[in-house]
Amino acid sequence: MIMLLIWTIAALVAGIYCIARSVVDLRQRKYAWGALGLISAAVFLLAPVPSHEVSVTLPIATSR
Predict the structure, then answer these.
(1) Tell me: the pLDDT tens digits for 8-52?
(2) Could you give the CA distance from residue 26 to residue 43 in angstroms, rounded to a whole number?
(3) How far is CA 2 from CA 6, 8, 10, 49, 53, in A?
(4) Residues near 4 by Cβ (< 8 Å), separated by ≥ 6?
(5) SS3 state at 57
(6) Cβ atoms of residues 23 and 45 within 8 Å
(7) What is the spatial distance between Cα 38 and Cα 43, in angstroms, rounded to a whole number?
(8) What pLDDT is attached to residue 55?
(9) What is the CA radius of gyration of the chain?
């Protein structure tokens, strides 16, 4: 559980840094770097974080 918290915080910090860096780049008219920073932030913030596994067993369908 603690590792999940650490990785979540690390991803948030990396995403916030990418957003801040892209804003600086966009204000300096470095559009390619700004766009790359926004894409990187989206990857960090939208990536799924596996927390636990759920197993569901469904009954076998039978024909009548």
Answers:
(1) 899 899 999 999 999 999 999 999 999 999 999 999 889 887 767
(2) 19
(3) 6, 10, 12, 13, 17
(4) 49, 51
(5) coil
(6) no
(7) 9
(8) 86
(9) 20
Q: What phi and psi, each to the nearest 5 degrees, are found at residue 36? A: -65, -40
Give the integer Cα–Cα distance in Å for 21 and 36: 10
Q: Which two tokens stand for residue 43?
A: 């990857």
Residue 46's φ and ψ, nearest 5 degrees, are -100, -5
* Cα of 46 vs its chain's centroid, Å: 3
20 and 58 Cβ atoms separated by less than 8 Å? no
Q: Is this prediction's pTM over 0.85?
A: no
